[in-house]
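Revision sheet: structure tokens.
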Amino acid sequence: MGELFRSEEMTLAQLFLQSEAAYCCVSELGELGMVQFRDLNPDVNVFQRKFVNEVRRCEEMDRKLRFVEKEIRKANLAILDTGENPEVPFPRDMIDLEATFEKLENELKEINTNQEALKRNFLELTELKYILRRTQQFFDEAELHHQQMSDPDLLEESSSLLEPSELGRGAPLRLGFVAGVINRERIPTFERMLWRVCRGNVFLRQAEIENPLEDPVAGGQVDKSVFIIFFQGDQLKNRVKKICEGFRASLYPCPETPHERKEMLAGVNTRIDDLQMVLNQTEDHRQRVLQAAAKNIRVWFIKVRKMKAIYHTLNLCNIDVTQKCLIAEVWCPVTDLDSIQFALRRGTERSGSTVPSILNRMQTSQTPPTYNKTNKFTYGFQNIVDAYGIGTYREINPAPYTIITFPFLFAVMFGDFGHGVLLTAFAVWMVLRESRILSQKSENEIFTTVFSGRYIILLMGVFSVYTGLIYNDCFAKTLNMFGSSWSPRAMFHPMGNWTDKTLQSNPNLQLDPAHPNVFSGPYPFGIDPIWNIATNKLTFLNSFKMKMSVILGVVHMVFGVSLSLLNHIYFKRPLNIYFSFIPEIVFMLSLFGYLVILIFYKWCAYDASTSKDAPSLLIHFINMFLFSYSDKTMKYLYNGQRGVQSFLAIVALLCVPCMLVVKPLVLRHQHLKRKHLGTHNFGGIRVGNGPTEEDAEIIQHDQLDTHSEDGEEFNFGDVAVHQAIHTIEYCLGCVSNTASYLRLWALSLAHAQLSEVLWDMVLHLGLSVNNFGGSFLLFFVFAAFAVLTITILLIMEGLSAFLHALRLHWVEFQNKFYCGAGYKFFPFSFESILEGKFEE
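Predicted:
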């Protein structure tokens, strides 16, 4: 667990890789996932690097695989995922992969092209079939109407309308017609356009096609209608065709005689049957090709993306002038150097090279990346810390403490036994099914986020169960586990003045805790259940939870200040210990630590008989700041309180100039001492009266907080302003941060009151009906109660308490010792690349 409390020790290493072994060595490092490569060619354009052609070839293979994957998903086929992690193919295998993918892509494109052409022909023949059927129906209806007409002029006009080619040359009226198919939603607009352009000199008949037709281009189903337009003259014919072309209507040749139409329909049906058989065979062939590809496409993707990542990494390396060696620089954990050496040895053996790869540790003044090792349990808590800021290299990591304090502070605000059980049950379900859920790879972002914090939710639920038992609160009701320490029957004692009539006629009675035998002693665990029916319940809980919030807040902040001492000791900053940590802890304990002591003292010093005479802690605390003790009627908690409070206030005030002034002056003195009385070594002989080399080293460590760390000139003004800001922020922050912890009190009361309102206004409604209908009503009322409990009290209130606990850790706790000014360690890892956790 040692590596969890502080980030891993990192080192900068130089790798010397033989050209023939570099590919395999980088492959083994990618499988290991413990090194972060630095770009040694920052000024070289990405298109001018050595392995840019290999990267392009990998991108082209990746594009082809994405095309195949798209076709597989379009065919609703499942991609086989066996969880296999294939080895990276050798560079010589790239040609075989390219040939395989090229053949597969060309075959699919050819199948798609042929299938699209066949579907287009099938669509045209299907539309022609419906046109011939509907056109024949139009003419049959007109002929039936013609037989029923008695007017000779109308008879002549109808006959010319029906069969224009069968009339003689002297016919008074000769009509032409066109037939086609158009999308059904365009019919009204199409009809209006025909009427306006042709001035009402055309006759349109249309009928819907019952079955939707498949679009060969888009692939969806389209509703269409058959139409036939009658007109006279070539001018109207040209207008009609242009309108049809504008509305993307398909026109088909339609014979004028019934006999020809019948023959054409028979031929069309025969061709449709033949085409349907060819389409079925084509689709079967396409399915076989895609099924074979679906079995291997995941493995192909892994191989191609690993190859691309390797060549991209090789482009970050320098090439020796002899072109036989690649030089790389990597950040890596010191504890994993042996594993890295072993991976390089495996890569060299796999490539068949006889020259071993060399790893050489380098000395550098650059700040290494921050790397905190995590497992599936600590991962979520580390993410909470990293969301505030990546820790500075080797500083204290707040994550192990957050594992306990975060769910506990959440539970203080969310304390309810019933809600805690529900939250714990949900978290246990996710933990038990985590392997199955991980294998399903859900794309629901909200559920994925919740699932990644399953262990956080588990601890939040467990702690909520504990605080719910402390509060004795379960869905706004109490648990009477040990009876009650209050005994109303004691008021019937001969010394009392209650009777049975008193109990029956008074809904509210006040128990006197000072009365003999009314109060038998403290409740064994948590809060006495009788408080749930007391009229002054809210007053009691307000006082209890407010004081509890102050105690927890002060303890949490003092712990944070104490952790800063570990940072100062590790980084060897004695000035920060003497003039930052000690004044800060003294200031905090003198004021707010003393307040916590007063709270405990008041709880212990006053009992039921003397509680009415207890002085107000808030008034005493304010008077301590103001040194106001002129009120002679003021009661003190203990003898000598005035002197103790005056002494502590003066000590706290003295800590302010100690933090504000002393440290900048000491830094200035050390700077002048190094500047004017430094040592000069000539031939190994020490000259001058300045500090020794060991003293200079100590001074250098002391000045890590100033700009001198970067080799810049010491600026007393900047140091003084920086220290003034830090002092003011800390002193004011102690007051504001302590007040901020009162959110524990506010959120806890709000959650309890919401739960109580939900019980009284929803579930109590179903329980108040004492008949058979009440049980029927209770079924629906309980369903509403369950939905509201989950949505409001568990989700909304839980999210609110989560955010407030997050703020208490980021602002009130971590700012006491955590800088968060580092940058994260991103190792070259195939696992992370394949999961898409970060871009190249």
